[in-house]
Amino acid sequence: MRILDAKMAIWPHLTGRRGGSDVYSGAMAVIFDPLRGRVRPEASHPDAAIIDVLTKTYSDADWAVLTGAGMSTDSGVPDYRGPDSPPRNPMTIQTFLSHPDQRARYWARSWMGWPRMRSTQPNQAHLALAELSLAGIITQNVDGLHQAAAEAVAADRATEAGAPAPSPVIDLHGSLDRVICLSNGHLFDRDWVQRRLSELNPDFAEAVGIDPIDVETAPDGDVELEDTAGFAVLDCPECGGLLKPDVVYFGDSVPAARVQAANRIADEAAGLVVLGSSLAVLSGLRFVRAAAKEGKPVVIVTDGPTRGDEFADFRSISRVADFVTAWAAR
Predict the structure, then answer these.
(1) Integer angstrom CA distances of residue 175 from 12, 89, 140, 171, 179
(2) How far is the C-alpha of 214 from the C-alpha of 158, rounded, in Å?
(3) Active-site residue 173, yes or no?
(4) C-alpha–C-alpha distance, residues 140 and 119, integer Å
(5) Where does the Deacetylase sirtuin-type domain lie (predicted)?
(6) C-alpha neighbours within 13 Å on the C-beta side of residue 192
(7) Dihedral sign, CA of 221, 261, 132, 302?
(8) pLDDT the model gives residue 228
(9) pTM for the full model?
(10) pLDDT for position 84
């Protein structure tokens, strides 16, 4: 067993229990789509003109970057709201806490999806962004691909004297490679948890007739799987508490320390670049609103509508990988 050390806030109010018994809701919560009715805008400027602003009017170090699921689609990780995305009903924190059956449902789907998610590699957009010396990257993604790209770029630069340090990365919504105990905050390596779940459920994949390597995962790493009855869930081996991936579910809150770290990056930057995010959730949109309120330039690059389009000074509808590659080549 590998326990990860962390100093972080615990959420005792998220027990989901009243009077000693679990509150149960058999139905998944309905996630309201804040982009409903919004249409794809026109590009405000050619990409070359926007990149001139990024590189000539300002330097790379002046920019904070906020990334979303569109950053990882070329790595095989689907997004929730792209033009070709199927309807999805992600797990909410309220549903996860409501009943053991719901936790078994989540963990069965997550256990099935982890091998595919773990095998994903950074794409050209991640690698190009890692080449830039930015004020920092704030990502809404939980796939760890920005860190993997930074490691790859650092390895390539290992022989270069005076090579710049990687841009700091804040995982705003957490990371799938960690699992947290909701009772006492113990952290565990996701691979260790995967092995323990496999030991507890040796025949599950064969019983449902699914090969974990061939399944399509959702952006948060689970798969569409209806029959999860009988899946055995692992509790915290330290205290018996509920285990949950160390990610922010819908309806959950971003830990205060993480928000403060992201705020520092955004506050110290001269401007904000949004890459591949629809800004549908407030945890990302708030950075755009704050930058606009302070008169900082806002650049948004994604091929669909966003919740922050009215705040954008510069708007590109190009593929994220094409835009970032061109930026890094300047």
Answers:
(1) 21, 20, 10, 7, 9
(2) 36
(3) yes
(4) 19
(5) 40-330
(6) 14
(7) positive
(8) 76
(9) 0.84
(10) 52
List 99, 126, 146, 173, catalytic entry: 173
Tokens 């955004």 sit on residue: 266
Tell me if 170 sits within 8 A of 137, measured CB to CB. Answer: yes
Residue with tokens 């799938």: 176
The amino acid at 158: A
Contacts of 123 (CB under 8 A, 6+ apart): 72, 74, 75, 145, 321
CB 314 within 8 A of CB 299: yes
Q: In what order do the strands lie in the sheet with 3-4?
A: 3-4, 187-189, 174-181, 243-247
Blockwise average pLDDT, block size 10, the chain, 330 residues: 41 33 37 78 97 98 97 85 54 91 91 90 97 97 96 87 87 96 97 97 79 57 66 96 94 93 98 97 96 98 96 98 97
How far apart are the C-alpha atoms of 103 and 91, rounded to whole Å?
10
Cβ neighbours for 217, distance < 8 A, ≥ 6 positions apart: 77, 78, 113, 116, 117, 223
Q: In this structure, what token pair is assigned to residue 9?
A: 């806030």
pLDDT tens-digit readout, 276-287: 999 999 999 999
* Mean per-residue pLDDT of the chain: 85
C-alpha dihedral (62, 64, 69, 73), degrees to nearest 10: 20
